[in-house]
Each structure stands twice: as structure tokens, then as C-alpha cells.
């Protein structure tokens, strides 16, 4: 199974400041078709997860453009350019290149400093 | 508006069974693979099962293989998860998730508690 490792696990950020979350996979996430299936989810307190980014850098509909994804191979990053109060929650990366199983990172808890 | 509404969770004794349902609306249900994903405080998000749009191609996590059965009724826009021989470690919130360029839209979840 592909192991997904996120860092940091806790991320205190002041309002208006940038935030960055790293996600590393135990093997390359480049599919044989050339695509890379690395996705990011946000889970606000008391809510279900919501997908933010798919295939490394594609933002889902309705996701603010302060969220961006980047990376390749085994190293990926989710960045928030200016953190807002509504961004508080847990962020998960997930790979869907080598399935089954689909595998998630441990989660990174973002809080306002 | 896409909606996924799970039901069927509850308290069950170890060794018991439970059947979860997920009613979908707001999209062409038969056109999408669907997943079950569970979440526990200790282990985060764990993928459980995937079923394609026809219901013919199914995969499971090793931890539930042989005990859980996923199915779907496209005429009723409903996804199911039959869970047998339940264990304490199956305790979790179970989410029904649509697949659109991989997992995208999640239901609100239903809590399953396995305890004597």
C-alpha cells in the first residue's frame, strides 16, 4: 500500500498569513497514463470532508483561489496564500493512483494563532 | 444540488450485523462509481470499498474483505453497505462518497458503534 505522510500535523497560523502543508508518498504517484492522482480535502469542525484540489493542482468548483496545490512524483504541497477564519479545520491528502486501497495522510490541523 | 444521505448506523454487539444505506440525488447516480470511507478519531480517514456504476466491479480494503458487502440499486439511487461479523475496530463514522475524477462529494456520515 502507498503510505501518505503529512507535515506538520498541527499548524497554527495568524489571520492573513500564508500556510503550507506537505504531503509525501512512499512511491511515485505518476500513473501509467501520465496523470498524477493526488488530492486534497478540507474537513471543517463538525462537517464532512470536502474536496479542494484534485490531480495535484486542479481546484474544485467554489474553492477560493487562495488555495493552490503543487508538486510531482512523491512530494506535494497545499498552500493557502492568506488564511481566513473559515479555513480552520483538518486537511488531508489522498492518493488515487495505486488503488486499491485509496490511502490518506494522517491529517494536518490548521488553527488560528 | 448533489445530496448523499446515509442511514442505518447505530449500536451493535461484536459479531453482529448492520446495513448502511446512502440515498443519492442531484446527479446521475448510475454514471458514477461510489465509495464508502470511514473515520475514527484514532486512525483518521480509511477507505473501505468502491463499486463502479454498473455494480459489477467491486473492491474492498483488506480489513473488511469477506465481512462487508457493497451493492447498489441504480433504480432507487441507493448505495448499500452490508456489514457482518462486526468488530470493535469497525467503530467509526461511515461516509458515502461520490467518485468524479476520484472521490469528490461526501455525505454527512452515519455513526456505527460496535460494543457490548
Structural class of chain B: mainly beta
Regions of chain B with pLDDT < 50 over 5+ consecutive residues?
none
Portion in beta strands of chain A: over 45%
Query: What is the ordering of alpha helices and beta strands of chain B?
Result: EEEEEEEEEEE
* Total DSSP helices of chain A: 0
Distance between the termini of chain B: 40 Å
Write a concise synopsis of the structure shown:
The complex is a heterodimer of chains A (113) and B (116). Chain A is an all-beta fold. In chain A, 0% of the residues lie in helices and 48% in strands.
Protein architecture, described:
The complex is a heterodimer of chains A (113) and B (116). Chain A has 113 residues and is an all-beta fold. Chain A has no helices and eleven strands. In chain A, the strands form two sheets. In chain A, strands 2, 4, 5, 6, 9, 10 and 11 form a seven-stranded mixed beta sheet that branches. Chain A has a four-stranded antiparallel beta sheet with strand order 1-3-8-7, with no helix packed on it. In chain A, a hairpin with a 3-residue loop joins strand 5 (50-54) and strand 6. The radius of gyration of chain A is 13 Å and the shape is globular. Chain B is an all-beta fold and 116 residues long. Helices cover 0% and strands 54% of the residues of chain B. Chain B is built from no helices and eleven strands. In chain B, strands 2, 4, 5, 6, 9, 10 and 11 form a seven-stranded mixed beta sheet that branches. Chain B has a four-stranded antiparallel beta sheet with strand order 1-3-8-7, with no helix packed on it. In chain B, a hairpin with a 3-residue loop joins strand 4 and strand 5 (44-51). Chain B is globular, with a radius of gyration of 13 Å. In chain B, 39% of the residues are buried. The interface between A and B is medium-sized, with 23 and 20 residues.
Amino acid at each position: 500500500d502507498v503510505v501518505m505522510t503529512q507535515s506538520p500535523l498541527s499548524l497554527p497560523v495568524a489571520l492573513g498569513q500564508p500556510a503550507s502543508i506537505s504531503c509525501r508518498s512512499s512511491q511515485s504517484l505518476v500513473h501509467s497514463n501520465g496523470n498524477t492522482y493526488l488530492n486534497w480535502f478540507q474537513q471543517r469542525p463538525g462537517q464532512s470532508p470536502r474536496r479542494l484540489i484534485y490531480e495535484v493542482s486542479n481546484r474544485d468548483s467554489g474553492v477560493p483561489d487562495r488555495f493552490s496545490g503543487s508538486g510531482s512524483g512523491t512530494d506535494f504541497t497545499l498552500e493557502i496564500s492568506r488564511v481566513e477564519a473559515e479555513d480552520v479545520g483538518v486537511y488531508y491528502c489522498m492518493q488515487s493512483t495505486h488503488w486499491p486501497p485509496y490511502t490518506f495522510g494522517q491529517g494536518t490541523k490548521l488553527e488560528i494563532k | 444540488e448533489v445530496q448523499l444521505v446515509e442511514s442505518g448506523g447505530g449500536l451493535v454487539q461484536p459479531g453482529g450485523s448492520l446495513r448502511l444505506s446512502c440515498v443519492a440525488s442531484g446527479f446521475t447516480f448510475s454514471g458514477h462509481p461510489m465509495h464508502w470511507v470511514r473515520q475514527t478519531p484514532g486512525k483518521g480517514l480509511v477507505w473501505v470499498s468502491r463499486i463502479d456504476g454498473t455494480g459489477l466491479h467491486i473492491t474492498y480494503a483488506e480489513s473488511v474483505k469477506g465481512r462487508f458487502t457493497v451493492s447498489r440499486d441504480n433504480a432507487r439511487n441507493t448505495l448499500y453497505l452490508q456489514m457482518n461479523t462486526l468488530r470493535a475496530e469497525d467503530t467509526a463514522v461511515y461516509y458515502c462518497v461520490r467518485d468524479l475524477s476520484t472521490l469528490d462529494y461526501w455525505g454527512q456520515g452515519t455513526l456505527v458503534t460496535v460494543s457490548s
